[in-house]
Structures are given as C-alpha cells and as structure tokens.
Amino acid sequence: MPSAMLQPVVVLVLWSMVMWAWLYATRIPAIVRSKVEMAPTMTTADLNQHLPPQVRWKADNYNHLMEQPTLFYAAALTLALVGEGDGLNVALAWAYVGIRVVHSLVQALSNIIMARFLIFMAGSVVLLALATRAAMAVF
Question: Could you give the CA distance from residue 36 to residue 39 in angstroms, rounded to a whole number?
Fold first, then answer.
C-alpha cells in the first residue's frame, strides 16, 4: 500500500493546477481587455503595469507555489521513501498543504500582506518541522 504521505503531495500538486487555471481564467481576459501590444521584448513587469492587481495576485500566488513547496515535496517524498510517511509526519504534511491553500486564497482574493506573511510563517514552521523529521529519518 502506498505511503499516506503521498496524498498531501498529490493534493498540493492538484491545488497548484487549480491556481494555474485560475490565473489564466483571469489573466487572458484582462490582457484582451487591456489591448496591450504583446511585443517580444515585453517583460512580465511591463505586462503587469497593464493588469489590475486582482489579476496579478493569482499569477503571483502560482509562482509562489513553485518556490517553497519544492522543499515540501523533497521532505515529504523522502519520508515516504524511507517508510516514515505516517503519523505525525503525515499530519505535518497535511497541515502544510492546508496552510498553503489558505495562503493562496488570501493572496488571490484580498492580498492582505500581513495576513499572508503570518500564514506563510506558519507554513514555514510546519515545513521546518517536517524537514527536520526527514533529516532525522535519513541520518
């Protein structure tokens, strides 16, 4: 039977794809409405000047899901591979995934910076605990 640790890993991957779809569902119509010329030399910063903040927030969050969660994937998969993907470890993994979903929703819907920061810090502490437990499992 596969490790229970793989479930939160897959859920975070799927959540990332939800954010990917949401970013394009809002970004493409906003680009069309802006009538901005998409020159090959245009940077993301140039394009963002023409898009409403509420549209940019989804893309920013998708990018964030490609950053710190890569450490989560490494720690969670390590724990699954060494047979430690259960109990407290899987609870920490689910907590991290839940925190990342909440972080996404706050950023995508209201982008309240202090709330995002506190949620991010909570997720970072959970991830640190998970990474520490992965280190203990392999050393």
Answer: 9
Helix 113-138 with 87-109: angle, nearest 10 deg: 160
Assigned domain for 1 exists: no
Question: How many whole angstroms separate alpha carbon 23 and alpha carbon 15?
Answer: 12
Q: How many domains does the chain have?
A: 1
User: Is the residue at 70 inside a domain?
Assistant: yes
Model pTM score: 0.94
Q: Which residue has the tokens 């991290």?
A: 96
Residue 60, CB half-sphere, CA atoms under 13 Å: how many?
19
Q: From CA 135, how far away is CA 87, in angstroms rounded?
A: 16
**CA within 13 Å, CB half, 131:** 13
Band of pLDDT at residue 129, cut at 50, 70 and 90: very high
Q: How many helices (H) and strands (E) does the chain have?
A: 6, 0
Domain at 22, CATH number: 1.20.120.550
